[in-house]
Known about the structure:
- The N and C termini lie far apart (76 Å).
- This protein is mainly alpha-helical.
- 71% of the residues lie in helices and 3% in strands.
- Strand 1 (62-72) and strand 2 form a beta hairpin.
- It has helices at 2-22, 31-58, 85-108, 115-134, 138-156, 175-204, 209-215, 221-238, 246-250, 256-262, 270-277, 279-282, 288-309, 315-335, 339-366, 384-398, 404-418, 422-447, 465-480, 485-492, 505-533, 545-548, 551-557, 562-608, 616-639; strands at 62-72, 75-83.
Amino acid sequence: MMMESLVYVxxxxxxxxxxxxxxxxxxxxxxxxGIVASSLLFISFLASAFLAANLYMTGEVINVTMMxxxxxxxxxxxxxxxxxxxxxxxxxxxxxxxxxxxxxxxxYMDHDKSFNRFFSYLSAFVFSMLVLVMSDNxxxxxxxxEGVGVCxxxxxxxxxxxxxxxxxxxxxxxxxxxANEAFIMNRIADxxxxxxxxxxxxxxxxxxxxxxxxxxxxxxxxxxxxAAIALFIGAMGKSAQFPLHTWLTDAMEGxxxxxxxxxxxxxVTAGVFxxxxxxxxxxxxxxxxVSMFIASLGTFVAFYAASMALVERDLKRIIAYSTLSQxxxxxxxxxxxxxxxxxxxxxxxxxxxxxxxxxxxNVMHAMHDELDLFKMGDLRKKMRGTWLYMGFASIALxxxxxxxxxxxxxxxxxxxxxxxTYVLWIVLVITAAMTAFYSFRQVFLSFHGEDRHTPLxxxxxxxxxxxxxxxxPLAVLALITGWFMSSYKEFIYQIGKSVQYExxxxxxxxxxxxxxxxxxxxxxxxxxxxxxxxRTGEKAWKRDEEVENGFFYKLLINQYYVPKFYEEFxxxxxxxxxxxxxxEVDLKIVDASVDGIxxxxxxxxxKTRSMQTGNLSNYLNWMAVGGVIxxxxxxxxxxxx
Length: 641
């Protein structure tokens, strides 16, 4: 009974925080709103951590049915939740990062007039994310899936008052535009996910995970492949995989706490969670082709996103590209069958990426919303705490020991080698080198080198001390998470064989050499970035207009012209067709038909009201006319009987 109560506490504490904050949504900033919302998130984290500890010690999976949800004939769906090794991992990560982000937002949003409304949206998002990961059936997952989509739309477009700009000045155009892009692109993908859910229900008669997975061996290959593809389309949208990826970097228009929460630890990882949760489906031999496609696409996206980050100037967009790249690593692991490694990298990545985003928010706050790296430089003297945090998080991101990123990302690269997918392995190694370069390019351009901000009139300052203290747990977790990889492996193996993955003896013998090779390549990339961007004086970095006007630089800075392609060949034609249908079909046919019918009744009513004279003899005449007409109709009908 106590465990069941903790499930409800973990789930509904953020919901209570959202409702509380919404009560003051139209009021002026009240700091206690942020404190109460953060406290309730911390309570949710404590409940999640206790549930995780109980599961680790006892191994007992908790199933809770809150109520019967839908009952229609043979279709029965309960509002139920499952606390197993997969869901409790996500619960702990989501609530921990959310708590820190909520505390951080108290300082970051301190001057925003919509402070209270922001916390209402942020807590509602966490509640939706918990529904997504805790549900014991696909329909409940989909409700949470759509919930985080709506809350993401509200949060990315939070500063909706900002006007649209030209794409050349701002690739994201505006917060409202970015929010709509994310919402629409995810709705396209969600249609695929719905099709997958329909396929599974139609062929199994259930939406509950256990019941669906138990019947998978009895389904045809066509059904299995169709369901796997359709579900992954949904995952592609939510986790921003090519070609449904452009919304993620544009979503940086939202406040930085939103980026740290949604685009590091929660919503963008939902696609990875879906694949890991559906591991009994994706681990089947009949679906091996789909799984290999997932691994290949993930590897491509890892490289693709990293290449664009090499030349990006916007601090937050670089971190967004990094997130996109690391999601590619996770899908590569999941596609190759190493589900537990993908989930472990998801957790480790959440900590150091959230730390990076929050550090980026500190810089943005200090530089009065300026994010151009070319306008920064030598900030470490004025923002030493943020410099240490971002440097530390970057070391974790590039995968240097003993930090968390080394253990999880190195395991993914080893997995590609172990599966003899050497092309994927080579691409992932090259991507690791690129990650090291762009990560420390960002650090060196902002915190080292020449002071470029003072001549431009910027006077940066460090963030509030309580914000820096709140970020400290993320730094600790970025350091120590990898040390518990073996323990987590034992924990996750309790699920069953479908999530168990072991390296071959051959790979074990070569593992140390593979790891050392990657470390050497990463260190070489960091050294190159230092020599190019961190020095001062005569050897200081200077802009090279020849390079910036070159073909490859233009290709990367314009995101391979994919957004331009979408705009020219999808958005504009769609708008033109829509306007044509509006002016030629809607106005001239649909509206005209409705208006014509209305005019007909108006005209006939206007003409026939002259019958209402009030004269009894006139009424008798009309009755006679009506009688004659009825007799005529009856006679004609009798002729054809």
